[in-house]
Amino acid sequence: MPAVQETIDQVKAIDVDQYKYGFVTDIESERGAKGLTEETVRFISAKKNEPEWMTEWRLEALRRFKTMDEPTWARVHYPKIDFDELYYYAAPKSVEGPKSIDEVDPELLATYEKLGIPLREQEILAGIKPENRVAVDAVFDSVSVVTTFKEELKKAGVIFCSISEALREYPDLVKKYLGSVVPVTDNFYATLNSAVFSDGSFVYVPEGVRCPMELSTYFRINEQNTGQFERTLIIADKGAYVSYLEGCTAPQRDENQLHAAVVELVALDDAEIKYSTVQNWFPGDAQGKGGIYNFVTKRGDCRGKNSKISWTQVETGSAITWKYPSCILRGDNSRGEFYSIAVSNGYQQVDSGTKMIHLGKNTSSRIISKGISAGRSQNTYRGLVSAHRKASNARNFTQCDSLLIGQDCGAHTVPYIESKNSTATFEHEATTSKISDDQMFYCQQRGMSDEEAVALIVNGFVKDVIQQLPMEFAVEAQKLISISLEGSVG
Amino acid sequence: MLEIKNLHARIAEDGKEILRGVNLTVNAGEVHAIMGPNGSGKSTLSYILAGKDDYEITEGEILFNGENLLELGPDERAAAGVFLAFQYPIEIPGVATMEFLKTAMNAQRRARGETEMTIPAFMKAVKEKAADLKVSMDMLKRPLNVGFSGGEKKRAEILQMSLLEPKLCVLDETDSGLDIDALRIVSEGVNKLRSPERSMIVITHYQRLLDHIVPDVVHVMSRGRIVKTGGADLALELEKSGYADYVEDAAA
């Protein structure tokens, strides 16, 4: 039937081109030497004019890294990464430290405009209500290009800048919190990141302040054979609130690119941090060639009583995703949340989930995970919920749903539940379903095409999580999910 | 409007023949009832009209307003004006009934090259038709068919039908699972849609639906063929004598 033929044609047409952000920016770039050596680490540290203690901190991480083995427990398969064949630092030549927007290379501004991220404040201001403004830190390869609305945020007492800048301007704050949630020795990729991280965002919201606008960082990998190692540190002091968004894209390249980030969140007494990610790294082409290897350590520490950390993630990109945004519920009455949509298509491999570590009394956590697998992809939810001896009345609710599209994909659920306190209450619900032929036919009988029908059914499936995203990102996320699943039926 | 000529079809998976030469002509404005025992091929005929791909057409053709219907995909048939009210409406979890209606409506409009309906105009249309069918706002907010009672499901089907304004309505055992009050509401909804430009095929086992939706023509189907055609009184006759005569006729 023609409808089927049409679908096949569509699939052929979009297989490779469906990733909209695959372009390369032609810009002169400065790279550090190839390979993971002490020299490389010193080079990065010198580039950033870092204090001596920081250089030492990095070198310690490097020494440690050399003794570690790559973890193999995740359900992902890829050829061994040769860390000496990679570049660890790349920066557009024109960027030397923080600059005002007028000094930023127009080529870079054009790149971000193409990605839909305007960086000129006056352009952002035009037509947007103050309460809907978003401040952006734009990270291009290894450096932060520009941070918007810095001055306005400063008036509220909020520090929002690149981590390199924070190391120079606010060394005491950085020294106090850096590595306090994800220690240098935490895991293979976090240790690697500690040695060679080049940039990322730093946020400090002082006591009692509600951050007046959404903050966001937009990561872009451009250079070839270059890993991106960013480091984000967000601190919400007592009673503070901040909502932070992270977006990421990369050019379409034949070889795999490594992205190993560390994100640390600290919430003190009565503070709340809401961290949302829309991850759209290049997933590789239809044959599974290329794409980003995304090995990320994200962890939040509910350090103070009554604090709250909430992770929301929409994962559609990357060839490999290895990522477990977690919460340490240290403070009494603290609360952790994890809302996740992980979409995989083509040959993508996702191993993602969360850890909720209950340490304090009356702590609670909630996990809603929605995995959607299509094509030949493999999608694994891996999660740990644990209550320690003193975590009396700890509560967790986990709901873990998987949706399969087609015959060749896989969904896997690996929950770990450990309770050392008899007053803890943990609930776990899981479902696996398929988009049925009957559902497809029903939607088509009402006039929807294959793709419209899948998009509608999938949007229904992920609704609980989409509702957690800030409004403007919810719409974008919905579109992104539809695009990622284009050509998944036929 | 609709011309089915010598239609033979079998189940694609196991090759079992279900339709063995169906001939049926439905003119614009007519309501045809198709009755017959279980397994006679009534539901299969409705699925084939809507384009379900579980069947293989081995012989014959279907013309819809002169166009070869079998060459169109199910969504294209819907846009062309074919609507099937399902015997067992399918659940779509997480998708509010209202949202489903809007998506379907706009998909059809786009396919026909029309502009999408504005939200106020759409809301107005839904509210009007929903009130006729006693479909509450609360029901419109619930995910389509999820946890709906039998009556709610059938009312939701007729609501979709009245919003989408199809040219050919195929109702597959719309009376099954309905109590007397629900049957009346649904039938009134269907009758409201009768018009000189719209044709209907009403598939049912029982006369009682045809008391409410009075057909112009009644067909009896048995073993994959239409074995008898008559007026509305044929249904009454069947109610008395049952299908036994026709089953034997077809076998002979």
From TrEMBL, chain A:
It holds the Pfam family SufBD_N. Residues 154-211 form the SUF system FeS cluster assembly SufBD N-terminal domain. Residues 219-461 form the SUF system FeS cluster assembly SufBD core domain. GO terms for biological process: iron-sulfur cluster assembly. InterPro entries: Fe-S_cluster_assembly_SufBD, SUF_FeS_clus_asmbl_SufB, SUF_FeS_clus_asmbl_SufBD_core, SUF_FeS_clus_asmbl_SufBD_sf, SufBD_N. Belongs to the iron-sulfur cluster assembly SufBD family. This is Fe-S cluster assembly protein SufB.
TrEMBL record, chain B:
Belongs to the ABC transporter superfamily. Ycf16 family. Keywords: ATP-binding, Nucleotide-binding. This is Fe-S cluster assembly ATPase SufC. InterPro entries: AAA+_ATPase (IPR003593), ABC_transporter-like_ATP-bd (IPR003439), ABC_transporter-like_CS (IPR017871), FeS-cluster_ATPase_SufC (IPR010230), P-loop_NTPase (IPR027417). Residues 2-248 form the ABC transporter domain. The keyword Hydrolase does not apply. Pfam families: ABC_tran. One of its GO terms (molecular function) is ATP hydrolysis activity.
